């Protein structure tokens, strides 16, 4: 599969399906489609493991409150402006096609979970990087580099100056 360069991308939720992890835990498998720029139409997959060792099928509210996967799934739904309801199946179905933005990183597998994947590159959504697309984000993102394939130009100060200028334009 194509490795997506580390960067900030507008996406939409293409699929979000209930599944079971290799260890028998409830999880949701998502496929996000990039909607703009040189990586348009490339996809990123994410898994949200909800179940825990003590509650693999996540039957307890406590499990939903504690697992990283459930918190990340909720952040995705909030960032995509999906209405949250008491019916999770309905909420998941409603999320399909909703736009959001996130930072994608090129992650190299260390082989801890499965040695056969050691050294393999994967494009992953950076933890806690989901956000709703706002007009100012597009201006800032475009000011960082001509495309996500280009190397980062300038110093951190130049990026901060560009962001500050973009913020002034948005006021």
Explain what this protein looks like in three dimensions:
By secondary structure, the protein is of the alpha+beta class. The protein contains five helices and five strands. The protein has helices spanning 61-66, 68-79, 88-95, 135-144, 156-170, and strands at residues 7-20, 26-34, 43-49, 99-108, 121-125. It has a five-stranded antiparallel beta sheet, sandwiched between helices. Strand 2 and strand 3 (43-49) form a beta hairpin.
Number of H/I helices: 5
Can you give the helix content as a percent range? 25-40%
Strand content: 25-35%
In whole angstroms, the N-to-C terminal distance is 41 Å
> How many strands appear in the DSSP assignment?
5
How many whole angstroms does the radius of gyration measure?
18 Å
Largest sheet: 5 strands, antiparallel
Strand order of the largest sheet: 3-2-1-4-5
**How does the overall form come out from the CA principal axes?**
globular
Low-pLDDT stretches = 135-164
What's the average pLDDT? 81
SSE sequence, one letter per element: EEEHHHEEHH
Structural class assignment: alpha+beta
